[in-house]
Each structure stands twice: as C-alpha cells, then as structure tokens.
Amino acid sequence: MSGGQTIRWSRMSLEELQSFWTEEIEPDLERSGVDLTERPSYRQVADAGYSGIAYALREHHDMSLTDFLATVGYEEPGSSASYRWGIDDETTIAELESYLETLERRRQLATSTVQTKQSRLATYARIYREVHGEADLVDRAADASNESDEIRRALVVFDELNYELGTDASKLRYLSDVSQFYEHLERRAKAAFNPVERIDEEYNWSREEPDNAALTGRQVGRLYDAADSQSEELVVLALCAWGLRRNEVAALHTSQLVLEGEDPHIAFGDERKNGPGTVALIYGTSKLAARIDRLDEDSGWSGYLFPSSRSASGHITGETVQARFQRLAEDAGVRVQGDLPTSKMGRRFWYTTYNQAMKNLRENLDVIAAEQGSSDSSVVMKNYLSEEERRQYRREFMREQLAEVFEG
Q1: How far is residue 115 from each of residues 21, 70, 75, 106, measured CA to CA in Å?
Q2: 61-92: pLDDT as tens digits
Q3: DSSP secondary-structure letter at 372?
Q4: Given the DSSP bridges, would you call strands 265-268 and 277-280 parallel, antiparallel or unpaired?
Q5: Under 8 Å CB-to-CB from 18, ≥6 apart: which residues?
Q6: Residue 220 is inside which H or E element, if any?
Q7: 155: part of which helix (H) or strand (E)?
Q8: pLDDT of 82-118, one tens digit each?
Q9: For residue 231, how many other CB atoms are within 10 A of its CB?
C-alpha cells in the first residue's frame, strides 16, 4: 500500500505513472492477492490505496484507467493488438510483438521490465502516428533510401517527448528502448538502418552521474560579476548560458557563429564530441558581438574567440578554460561541496535552468489550457501552437531564466 504517504499524482508524467505502476502498485496488488494475469479493476486498485491514479489520468492525461492499463500490458478482453499499441500498421505491430517475445523468452527479462519497455515503445509509436499519419516504422526503415527522411521523422517524435517527459533520464530511457527495437530489426535484416541511433546528439540530455553537482543561479551570478574582462565574461556565458563543453569554448571560431536573423546559434561540425548539431544563442549575443568587434580591431586576428599566439592550434586549450573558470570562482568565493567548481558544473547549470524554464512554461500553458477547457498544457502545445511557436515559447522562458541569473 501507499503507507499513508501523500502521492503527488498530478505531478507525475505519464511515463512516471507507468513506472510507479510497475514498481509500486503491481507488487502491492500481488501481495493483496490480486490475480495479475487479468486486467485489475478500478475497485481492486482503489482498495489497495491507489484510487488517485484514475483522477490524475483523466484530468492530466486524458486517459481512462482502462486506457492506461493497456499501456502497461493489460489487454481489455476482446480487444485487438492494434488497440493495445494504439496504431493500425500490422507489420509494425507484428514486429513489436516479436521483439517483446524475444526479450521475455530469449533474454528472460522480468515481465514488469518487458511491460515497461512495451509502454515506452507504444508511446513512441502513437506519437509517430499522430504527427506522421501512419506508424509504418518497419517498412520505412527497410529501405536505405528513406534514411534521411526517417531520421527527420524520428526527430519530430523526440521533440514531442523532449517536451512531455520531465527528466533527461526518462528521455534517455525512451531513446534506449526505441533504439534497441531498431537494432533488433537490423539483426533480422528487416531494417537497413537505425533512425534514432544518434538522436541524443541533437539534445543536451545529461546522463545521471553520481555526485552530479551543479552550480546554483546565485553562484553563476557571482562568477559573472567577478569577471573583469570580455574574455572572462564570455567564458561564463559559454559554459553556463550556452551549455558548451570546455573544449568547445576554447575552440570557438567566428565561422561557427550565426548572429543575424531570428535564430542566432553556434553551428558544430562532425568534430563535436557527440556529433553534429547547433546550439541556440538564447542569451548573451550582445556580449559575443562586442567581443568579436574588439578582436576584429587586430588585422592579424585568426577568428578564434579565445586566441593564443603560443598554441599551434591558434586558440587556448580546454584546460585553460577550466583554469580561468576556477580562477573566477576563487575570486568570487564560489565553492561546491567545499571545492572549486569545474567547468562541467557550468554545463550542468544549463541543464537545470532549462528544466526549470520548461516547468515554468508548462505551468503557464496550464492556465491557458484551463481557459480553453483542455485537460492539460500538452493539448495546447500540440493542437494550438505550431512547431515554430513552441520553439519561440521555450526560448523566451529560457531567456527569462538566464536574465534573472546574469542581470539579477
């Protein structure tokens, strides 16, 4: 049972509810003598102390308990596989079922683990169908000539998941399960490529690490205030406001910068640690432009934002970025768990700030959703805003968060 503790149902994402079901509710039902070979009833769930899940599903996810149970492996009597998966492409359904059977029979994974994977795969397939019309995942991956288009389609699905899921860990688990399904198809010569193989390189998702300490907004503000040159200010901005790695900061070049137009960004090539991509310059472009103007006064300038005449590369090293960052921390009296912060902690600050900005955006859209009579903010995002408008809102809320830190 829930042990008398308050369960904050309304704060859980669908994926978190699914995990809570398999990790907490199912074991309690089993201990209560409920036969889990059949779909449990609402009464059985309520008697075990979990009646709140039905309200949360209805109010925040537009689902009945029956709909939800189908996503965690309980098929309604008389329903078809297409109902359980939420799609109608028979080839994809057959391969998904075959894959899950392989996990259970050959790899001997626990039933609850397989059900959780099924839930994530079903969510991916349903979103794919919603945004692309048909969830013909297998047929499209079977033809190598489709690879570019299919990667683009997969990115659209993960853009949705990136917004809807609450944590980077959740997003990475979804990506892992979907990628493993495509790998299964490749091993059986039913897919010519894996369209999600490198999708994590498109996002700033952070894998959990032990002692994953991050700087606070107040500490970052103190670091920025301690900077007494354009170069030092830019180090703090690049690490904390743009989320760059220290080696990326060290090698920044004007050829990577797009400062004109409505979408200022940094473009990276194949040399980036996690592959190609771009980083939006949501905050601090005026400081960056001022730095370029200052350096451009030197006729012999090579174009690097942090040039070095003593280095064969023409720019400083990542270790130098780290040293400058820690020198600022020393001057500002900033410590994390008693030690000087590392440059990686600036990157982690970016993650936590972005997550807070997305939380603020969802709370803001909840108000709009209520006025529209919608069940939650995701309805507003999907049905009333274009992809460009979503991007604009995300950046506006992130810009507000960063302004509070650097201007507060």
Answers
A1: 10, 10, 12, 16
A2: 767 787 788 777 675 544 445 556 878 889 99
A3: H
A4: antiparallel
A5: 68, 71, 72, 116, 119
A6: helix 217-226
A7: helix 147-164
A8: 556 878 889 999 999 999 988 877 777 666 677 778 8
A9: 16
| pTM metric for this prediction | 0.49
Q: Tokens for 200?
A: 């994590």
Question: Do 214 and 348 meet the contact criterion of CB atoms below 8 Å apart?
Answer: yes
Q: Which two tokens stand for residue 318?
A: 């990542």
Q: How far apart are CA 169 and CA 177, in angstroms?
A: 12
What span, in angstroms and rounded, lies between the C-alpha atoms of 282 and 388?
15
On whether the CB atoms of residues 50 and 2 are closer than 8 A, the answer is yes
The first and second tokens of residue 253, run together, are 């070049």
Query: For residue 199, what are the β-bridge partners?
Result: none
Under 8 Å between Cβ of 91 and 136: yes
Q: Are 268 and 248 in contact (CB under 8 A)?
A: yes
What torsion do the CA atoms of 331, 333, 334, 340 make, to the nearest 10 degrees?
A: 70
DSSP state of 280: E
266 has which bridge partners? 257, 279
What residues are paired with 284 via a beta bridge?
none
Q: Tell me the C-alpha distance between 301 and 305, whole Å.
A: 10
- Comparing CA positions, the residue from 256, 219, 260 lying closest to residue 342 is 219
Q: What are phi and psi of 304, to 5 degrees?
A: -75, 140
Distance CA 40, CA 68 (A): 12
Any idea how long the chain is? Answer: 408
